[in-house]
């Protein structure tokens, strides 16, 4: 099959192109926002005021913290997407959770979202005492685009060494935004039905960073990080899905982390599709158990 030429858009064209999709997602998200259990909190970070949904902060006992970063292809989503999972996770593990409502592309392209996520982690660590957070037990993780941001935060921190992240979770993350979506594994027959549509993926990638060559930046595509930028990663859980065009880049990143001394726990769900851990399916439930068990182990002193 011939690969279509890559169309170069202006930011204004991208905003117009995805406006209908964003309106439809916004309409479907209203009910989730109304029923969300998380408590809205705002933090004045060095990258501006950031909205979050929080769990467990009514309890003034000092607890471990998990910072969740939602998915949505860089252009959709909000913390309410992860609300049911975060509510249960906070209750089951006895931890606090902050889910970040970062800025969305194409209106706010790279580096807006990653700067906000990094700054929020830094703020929560710096203000741990007043928020009843154990600064020695902070984990960060995210689904899909949130996994990209998590990896980018850790890459940046290998240079700045500002953050004390005890564990990271990368759940079916896009880690190679540079490679054209049509050049990623596309599968055949039955499998192809579940993969991310490459035409749409091209648009999402351009929305996040319009300059394709700039997408080699390891803060955009962590797979392109140098070995030196991977040394010092915290213990990391990498979850990939066999019916996902992002699977191979997640697998490769896990291997690179291992080769650079990180303690990596990698699980590929061969018959799962992108986004599966948010589904009520056997694979989704197993994936959520895996995340909970990883946090329980890495933030071990929370087990009381």
Give the overall form. globular
Contiguous uncertain segments of 5+ residues: none
Average pLDDT works out at 93
N-to-C order of helices and strands: HEEEHEHEHEHEHEH
* Largest sheet, strands/sense/barrel: 8 strands, mixed
β-strand amount: 15-25%
- Helix percent reads 25-40%
Q: Cα-atom Rg, whole angstroms?
A: 18 Å
Count of strand segments: 8
Question: N-to-C terminal Cα separation, in Å?
Answer: 57 Å
List strands and helices in order, with pairings:
Elements: H1 11-35, E1 39-45, E2 48-55, E3 63-69, H2 83-93, E4 96-101, H3 112-126, E5 133-143, H4 145-160, E6 167-171, H5 198-208, E7 236-243, H6 247-259, E8 264-273, H7 282-298
Parallel strand pairs: 3-4, 3-5, 5-6, 6-7, 7-8
Antiparallel strand pairs: 1-2, 2-4
Mind explaining what this structure looks like?
By secondary structure, this protein is α/β, with parallel strands linked by helices. Helices cover 36% and strands 20% of the residues. The protein has helices spanning 11-35, 83-93, 112-126, 145-160, 198-208, 247-259, 282-298, and strands at residues 39-45, 48-55, 63-69, 96-101, 133-143, 167-171, 236-243, 264-273. An 8-stranded mixed beta sheet has the order 1-2-4-3-5-6-7-8, with helices on both faces. Helix 3 (112-126) crosses helix 4 (145-160). The chain is globular and about 60 Å long.
